[in-house]
Amino acid sequence: MKKLVLILSIVFLLIACGEIENNKYKIIYHDNGSTSGFPPDDKNQYESGSLATVLGKNTLEKTGYDFGGWNTKPDYSGDYYNVGDKIKIKNINIFLHAVWNEVNLYP
């Protein structure tokens, strides 16, 4: 009985976090330290194996930086995606973090 309760609790948490939603997954965009604006909000739900188009920055801005695309890790150590790239959906939500490139004011 304890195992069943544990399994049901885990499934409930996964559903609450959006990890399981009729086998549909989301791309969630994070500002990653922007100073103003909002990241895109992809309302689509994707099936595993489908391709999704990576969105633009929406209204995100960061003082002293140019927007440089998206990365699966906030420290840019993950997979990099340009706006318009196709990303393959797997059996999990995808989190993309804004990439910020410092503007060189003195060439």
Supply the key terms.
two-stranded antiparallel ribbon, 4-stranded mixed beta sheet, Immunoglobulin-like, 107 residues, single chain, 30% strand, 8 strands, alpha+beta
Write up what this structure looks like.
With 107 residues, this protein is of the alpha+beta class. It has one domain: Listeria-Bacteroides repeat domain (Immunoglobulin-like, Sandwich), CATH 2.60.40. It is built from one helix and eight strands. It has one helix at residues 2-16, and strands at residues 24-25, 27-30, 46-47, 51-53, 65-71, 80-81, 86-88, 94-102. The strands form three sheets. The chain has a four-stranded mixed β-sheet, with no helix packed on it.
Q: Which spans have pLDDT < 50 for at least 5 consecutive residues?
A: none
* Overall outline: elongated
Question: Percent range for helical residues?
Answer: 10-25%
Find the count of extended strands (DSSP E, 2+ residues).
8
- What composes the largest sheet? 4 strands, mixed
Q: Specify the CATH architecture.
A: Sandwich
Helix and strand string, N-terminal first?
HEEEEEEEE
Category from helices, strands and their pairing: alpha+beta
The number of helical segments is 1
Computed Rg: 17 Å
